[in-house]
Every structure is written in C-alpha cells, then in structure tokens.
Write a structure and sequence with these properties.
It is built from four helices and seven strands. With 137 residues, the chain is of the alpha+beta class.
C-alpha cells in the first residue's frame, strides 16, 4: 500500500525556557511539534545562519555523512501518538553503480535540523496530517 506524502514548510519557531514549538505547514493545515529548548536553539541557529565557534552534534553528524558521501534524501514524519511525533531519515549513497537508500528512525527535531542544513525536503504522511491539531495565528 502506497502512503501519500505531504510536503511541509517551516512556518516558525517559538522558544520558551521549558520547550520549543516548531510550527510546520502544509497547504491545508499548520501544526506544531514540541521539542526541548536545546534542540530549538540549534534549529534557530541554523535558520538564522548563526555561526557556532565549535561544531555541534548536528555538525558532526553532517560532516560524517559528507565524509562517507551520503546525502540526506528526505525526512518523513510518519506517525504521531498522543503528542509524540515519529520520523524517518532517508539517506542515499551511491557506491559504483549501486544506489543504497538507508532509512533510519530518528526524532523529528533532529531530522528537521539535518534537513535544514542540507536543503532536503520534509514530508509527513497524509494520516499524520489528519491526526494533527491545527495551529491558528
């Protein structure tokens, strides 16, 4: 069975001391993912182009992937249970004539950060979009 994917855009990030809200949008709906403030701060750094004097964990992961000639193909937010979102990070590596696609379970906040760093698309399944609560202005 094929799962319909809906491409998402970043709408905004709002930060408090205890959590960060990442608002993602599709044509028909915007929804929020909550994460810890540290991840939210890192996301804001990447969105604003702020340089960090030392590499952060996402920088390390990105450099390892680049060193192995692996590219981030896409991120798919594939499930939501209560208020917890689940996602898959799809990586692509070509060795000789063989293209490998690797699918990894990861937190949406980490996936979104890596997607931002690499200009990779972020999707959610139609089922996830239907389960989310809409965010109003």
């Amino acid at each position: 069975m094929l799962t319909e994917l809906v491409q998402l855009t970043f709408d905004k990030i709002m930060q408090t001391r205890s959590y960060t809200v990442v608002v993602l949008g599709a044509k028909e709906k915007r929804f929020a993912i909550y994460t810890d403030p540290t991840v939210g701060h890192i996301l804001q750094m990447y969105l604003t182009g702020t340089e960090n004097p030392r590499p952060l964990t996402h920088d390390l992961m990105d450099q390892i992937l680049r060193g192995l000639d692996v590219r981030i193909k896409q991120v798919v937010i594939n499930d939501v249970q209560d208020t917890v979102y689940f996602s898959r990070l799809f990586l692509e590596q070509t060795v000789g004539d063989i293209r490998h696609i690797i699918e990894i379970d990861a937190r949406p906040s980490d996936c979104i950060t890596l997607a931002l760093m690499n200009n990779a698309p972020v999707y959610c399944t139609r089922g996830v979009l239907e389960k989310t609560l809409p965010v109003e202005d």
